[in-house]
């Protein structure tokens, strides 16, 4: 069964505790938390104080996705805020191996995100140090975008790399995931589905999460 990680970027921020309680009751596995700095991506979301409060509201995995420049400056703070998985962008890390060592040394699982234009083969030399690869299936920065079909080929290529190295790295798909296209991503080799609007704009979010989980 896939791991379902609803993105709280699409939650109701005036009723965040209510949405956290809903996710706790649901079959969601992880909370996906998108941090944007207005520099690496053209948008600003939320940061450490919000994550600290979300951490207090759930016992589920907090999957923190840093869409920021110089993530190494903040890794320790995100650990203290409650991150279980810390994902940095390949494109934001001049010394990616060092970033991964830092995240691991702080006791978090390591994640690397790739923008749509970044080929997966660039991770070949560090794949053994990565617990999760987040393939952006939209251009990062905003929710509600359309899934980029080329992502399916990237999933297949990455899955082959993981299996050839006999690794257990998860493949996470982030952006434009719907009930209509989720199965095709799983069939290609994805393990984790990030869903924002699909969950939080649904008439019945708990049922939508259950439907994704059942794929």
TrEMBL record:
<dbReference type="GO" id="GO:0019323">
    <property type="term" value="P:pentose catabolic process"/>
</dbReference>
<keyword id="KW-0413">Isomerase</keyword>
<feature type="binding site">
    <location>
        <position position="65"/>
    </location>
    <ligand>
        <name>a divalent metal cation</name>
    </ligand>
</feature>
<protein>
    <recommendedName>
        <fullName>Ribulose-phosphate 3-epimerase</fullName>
        <ecNumber>5.1.3.1</ecNumber>
    </recommendedName>
</protein>
<dbReference type="GO" id="GO:0046872">
    <property type="term" value="F:metal ion binding"/>
</dbReference>
<dbReference type="InterPro" id="IPR011060">
    <property type="entry name" value="RibuloseP-bd_barrel"/>
</dbReference>
<dbReference type="Pfam" id="PF00834">
    <property type="entry name" value="Ribul_P_3_epim"/>
</dbReference>
<feature type="active site" description="Proton donor">
    <location>
        <position position="174"/>
    </location>
</feature>
<comment type="function">
    <text>Catalyzes the reversible epimerization of D-ribulose 5-phosphate to D-xylulose 5-phosphate.</text>
</comment>
<dbReference type="InterPro" id="IPR013785">
    <property type="entry name" value="Aldolase_TIM"/>
</dbReference>
<comment type="similarity">
    <text>Belongs to the ribulose-phosphate 3-epimerase family.</text>
</comment>
<dbReference type="InterPro" id="IPR026019">
    <property type="entry name" value="Ribul_P_3_epim"/>
</dbReference>
<keyword id="KW-0170">Cobalt</keyword>
<feature type="active site" description="Proton acceptor">
    <location>
        <position position="34"/>
    </location>
</feature>
<dbReference type="GO" id="GO:0005737">
    <property type="term" value="C:cytoplasm"/>
</dbReference>
<feature type="binding site">
    <location>
        <position position="32"/>
    </location>
    <ligand>
        <name>a divalent metal cation</name>
    </ligand>
</feature>
<feature type="binding site">
    <location>
        <position position="65"/>
    </location>
    <ligand>
        <name>substrate</name>
    </ligand>
</feature>
<feature type="binding site">
    <location>
        <position position="176"/>
    </location>
    <ligand>
        <name>substrate</name>
    </ligand>
</feature>
<dbReference type="GO" id="GO:0006098">
    <property type="term" value="P:pentose-phosphate shunt"/>
</dbReference>
<feature type="binding site">
    <location>
        <position position="7"/>
    </location>
    <ligand>
        <name>substrate</name>
    </ligand>
</feature>
<keyword id="KW-0464">Manganese</keyword>
<keyword id="KW-0119">Carbohydrate metabolism</keyword>
<feature type="binding site">
    <location>
        <begin position="174"/>
        <end position="176"/>
    </location>
    <ligand>
        <name>substrate</name>
    </ligand>
</feature>
<comment type="pathway">
    <text>Carbohydrate degradation.</text>
</comment>
<dbReference type="InterPro" id="IPR000056">
    <property type="entry name" value="Ribul_P_3_epim-like"/>
</dbReference>
<keyword id="KW-0479">Metal-binding</keyword>
<feature type="binding site">
    <location>
        <begin position="141"/>
        <end position="144"/>
    </location>
    <ligand>
        <name>substrate</name>
    </ligand>
</feature>
<feature type="binding site">
    <location>
        <position position="174"/>
    </location>
    <ligand>
        <name>a divalent metal cation</name>
    </ligand>
</feature>
<keyword id="KW-0862">Zinc</keyword>
<feature type="binding site">
    <location>
        <position position="34"/>
    </location>
    <ligand>
        <name>a divalent metal cation</name>
    </ligand>
</feature>
<dbReference type="GO" id="GO:0004750">
    <property type="term" value="F:D-ribulose-phosphate 3-epimerase activity"/>
</dbReference>
